[in-house]
Design a protein that fits this description.
Shape: elongated
Oligomer: single chain
Helix content: 40-55%
Low-confidence stretches: none
Radius of gyration: 22 Å
Number of strands: 0
Strand content: under 5%
Order of helices and strands: HHH
Length: 95
């Protein structure tokens, strides 16, 4: 299915970003803005993008160790399928 063409910027278009009050407050805090300034429309798309990038980096950093463990498990089991089985984890505490 073909994608629709994106509008060319600079021809009167406006991009509006809408968020709930709690997300707006989190973006304001991360950007160093006062909550009143954020609520009054002081947030820009740069603030939103910086917030999203920071969350992406933090989440990726949390997952790197687990991805490394999975890679080591894969390398160890390669050619030895009997090592591919892992014990089943049934509790959140163990995760």
């Amino acid at each position: 299915m073909p994608a629709l063409p994106l509008p060319t910027p600079g021809k009167g278009q406006t991009l509006r970003t809408v968020g709930t009050a709690d997300i707006t407050a989190r973006i304001a805090r991360a950007s160093g803005l006062a909550p009143a300034a954020a609520a009054a429309g002081g947030l820009t798309s740069r603030h939103v993008l910086a917030f999203v990038m920071a969350n992406t980096v933090a989440t990726t950093q949390k997952g790197v160790l687990e991805w490394g463990h999975q890679g080591l498990q894969f390398a160890a089991a390669r050619g030895a399928p009997e090592h591919a089985l892992q014990p089943e984890v049934l509790t959140l505490e163990a995760m």
